[in-house]
């Protein structure tokens, strides 16, 4: 103990320490013989917990936690553990049903039993919703959306189902709306047209469902912006990174000046790509851009026209020439609208 602390204080401190340093370990001691440390035996055969010194039964319901099999992880199918996977919050109930195994000595009886039980036992709703989750996963995978997005979409779908938020809409339309909103929530830019191609639900219907759902959920989804779309459009058009960067710069500048106010973020992105690709002598036709962005060529040209007339204000050519990738660029390379 440090000599600087006066005695009464020292005592107080020790007392305080003791108070906070209580032994929190719970130790099981035989109440009869009180031997420390106790010598307690688990008798799994009878399910008893027995004191090894005096033979007193301390507990009569213990669970055998040892495995009675050997698993060779990659060898054979499933781990025969008695507990299944963690409960899936996306499905109703606790999923603790017992399921008859399909495996037996090859007689085929188990398979039939499994089938019969499956028909009888599984909740019909659960089976439906499981199929829909599978569909959502497959759709999200096919346009390389992350698991985060597909999980969000599933959660949204569950809410819609549970709270009956979209009455009278087909499940396809609900799925499309859920994927759409999940994309917005996770800030992954996907256009209606892309979701439309994915789900084969008409664009108008997706829009209607999305709006209805947004209103019901009262979620604030981020507005899709041209910058987010740009990276995907540029990479689909095989444009190098410096062009992508310049496109983003142009979009920002156009926003500041309000050049393309009122145009959709998709057509803004498309028009900027068109202009920048010509400026850097790496041109992409309106047709190619229209295919990637999913807007019409006429829309791109109309937006491009506004950009072209304000090109001097939007792009500072002298600053750009400092960049090694764009030494001899000039506005003469741009096509006339
Ligand atoms: Zn004892």
TrEMBL record:
InterPro entries noted in UniProt: Cyclin-like_dom, Cyclin-like_sf, TFIIB, TFIIB_cyclin, Znf_TFIIB
KW Transcription regulation (keyword) present: yes
SMART domains named among the record's database cross-references: CYCLIN
Organism domain of life: Eukaryota
A Gene Ontology cellular-component term: transcription preinitiation complex
Keywords assigned: Metal-binding, Nucleus, Repeat, Transcription, Transcription regulation, Zinc, Zinc-finger
Pfam annotation, one family: TFIIB
Localization of this protein: Nucleus
Domain TFIIB-type span(s) in chain numbering: 26-59
Coiled coil listed as a keyword: no
Biological process according to GO: RNA polymerase II preinitiation complex assembly
MF terms in GO: RNA polymerase II general transcription initiation factor activity; TBP-class protein binding; zinc ion binding
PANTHER family found in the cross-reference section: TRANSCRIPTION INITIATION FACTOR IIB (PTHR11618:SF13), TRANSCRIPTION INITIATION FACTOR IIB-RELATED (PTHR11618)
Family per similarity comment: Belongs to the TFIIB family.
Assembly with partners or alone: Associates with TFIID-IIA (DA complex) to form TFIID-IIA-IIB (DAB-complex) which is then recognized by polymerase II.
Function according to Swiss-Prot or TrEMBL: General factor that plays a major role in the activation of eukaryotic genes transcribed by RNA polymerase II.
Identification of the protein by name: Transcription initiation factor IIB
């Amino acid at each position: 103990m440090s000599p600087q602390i006066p005695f009464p204080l020292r005592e107080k401190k020790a007392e305080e320490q003791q108070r906070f340093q209580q032994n929190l370990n719970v130790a099981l001691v035989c109440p009869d013989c009180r031997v420390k440390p106790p010598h307690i035996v688990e008798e799994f055969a009878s399910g008893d917990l027995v004191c090894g010194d005096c033979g007193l039964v301390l507990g009569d319901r213990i669970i055998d936690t040892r495995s009675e099999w050997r698993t060779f992880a990659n060898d054979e199918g499933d781990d025969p553990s008695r507990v299944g996977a963690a409960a899936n919050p996306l499905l109703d109930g606790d999923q603790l049903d017992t399921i008859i195994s399909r495996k037996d000595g090859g007689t085929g009886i188990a398979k039939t039993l499994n089938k019969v039980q499956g028909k009888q036992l599984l909740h019909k709703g659960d089976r439906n919703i499981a199929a829909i989750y599978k569909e959502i996963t497959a759709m999200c995978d096919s346009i390389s959306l992350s698991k985060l997005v597909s999980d969000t979409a599933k959660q949204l779908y569950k809410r819609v189902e549970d709270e009956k938020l979209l009455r009278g809409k087909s499940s396809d339309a609900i799925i499309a709306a859920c994927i759409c909103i999940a994309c917005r929530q996770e800030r992954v830019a996907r256009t209606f047209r892309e979701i439309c191609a994915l789900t084969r639900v008409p664009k108008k219907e997706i829009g209607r469902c999305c709006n209805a759902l947004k209103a019901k959920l009262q979620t604030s989804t981020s507005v899709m912006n041209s910058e987010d779309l740009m990276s995907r459009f540029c990479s689909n058009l095989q444009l190098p990174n410096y062009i992508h960067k310049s496109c983003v710069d142009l979009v920002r500048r156009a926003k500041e000046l309000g050049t393309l106010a009122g145009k959709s973020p998709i057509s803004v992105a498309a028009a900027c790509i068109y202009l920048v690709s010509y400026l850097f002598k790496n041109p992409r036709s309106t047709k190619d851009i229209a295919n990637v962005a999913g807007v019409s060529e006429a829309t791109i040209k109309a937006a491009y026209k506004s950009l072209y007339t304000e090109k001097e204000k939007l792009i500072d050519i002298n600053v750009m020439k400092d960049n090694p990738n764009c030494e001899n660029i000039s506005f003469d390379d741009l096509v006339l609208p």
